[in-house]
Structure prediction request, 284 residues.
Amino acid sequence: MDIVSTKEMLSDAKKRRYAVPAFNIHNLETMQGVLEVANELKSPVIIATTPGTVSYAGADYLVAMAKVGAKRYNIPISLHLDHCSDVDILKKCIEAGYKSVMIDASLKDYEENLLITREVVGFAHNYSVSVEAELGLVSGQEDERDIKESDSVLTDPYTALDFVEKTKIDSLAVAIGTSHGVYKAEPKLDFERLKKINSLVNVPLVLHGASGVPAESVIKAIECGICKVNIATELKMPFADAIKEFFEKNPNASDPRHYLIPAKEALKKVVIEKIRVCNSMNRG
Ligand code: 13P
Prediction:
C-alpha cells in the first residue's frame, strides 16, 4: 500500500465512533516506533510532522520513510503536516507527497482565516490531499507557536458551521479546553460545546493537545464526536527520559543504536496505550 489521505480513515472513525491517533514524530526511530505498534495492533495511524520537523528532517526524507512503512505494513498510514501557517511550506509538502495538511490560520481574524483556508483547500484537493483547519485558538507551545492560556479562544459552534461550509475543509480542529504541551492542572474539557459543534458540523473533529488529558476524558471526547486525537508531548518525554537514563548508567556510551533502542521502546509503550484509548485497534 502507499500512504493515504486522512479523509477515508477519519470518515470510517466518525461512522464507527472511534478515533485515529495522530502521533508527532521527529526522526526515523520515532516513526518506526509508531508504525511498529500500529501494525501490531492493526490500527490506522497518522504520522504528524510540524513545519519544524520538516525543516529538521526534510519533507523528502519524511515522505520516503512513511512510504517504506506503508509498503511494509498492511494498515492505512497517512503523513500529515501539523499546524502549518505558511502556505508556501504547505504547498511544498504537498508537492513532496504529503497526503494530509493542517492549515493553521487560527491566529488571524475570521475573514482572513477563511480566505487562507479556502486557498489551501483549493490547492490540496487538486492533489487529493485532505485539509484540517482550526477555529478558535488552542493554547500551549508547539514549534514556534506559543499561545498563552489566557489568549485561548474556545470554538463557537455556529461560527464552526459557517467556517466548514465556506471552506470545504475535510476535518476541523476544535478548541474545547485542551492545550499543547505539559498541563499545570488537569484540563477541563467543554463536552457540551463539543456535542453542539458535532451536531452542527458534518466533518470529523480533531482534538489537539491530548498529551496529559486523562483517558476517560479522551474517551468521552470521542463519544462526543472527536475522530482524530493528536499526541506529541507524551511521546517526546519518555523518549528523552530513556536516553537520559541510559547515559546515567552508561556515561561513556556513544553508539546511537544502543541509546535509541530503549528510547524507542519507551515511546512504543505510550503508543500502545493511546491506540487503546482511541479504540482504533483492528480497524486497519
Ligand atoms: P500535545 O503536545 O499536547 O500532545 O499536543 C499535540 C498536538 O496537538 C499536535 O498538534
User: Anything to note?
Assistant: The first strand starts at residue 20 and ends at 24. The chain has one domain: 6-278. DSSP finds eleven helices and eleven strands in the chain. The domain at 6-278 is CATH 3.20.20.70 (TIM Barrel).
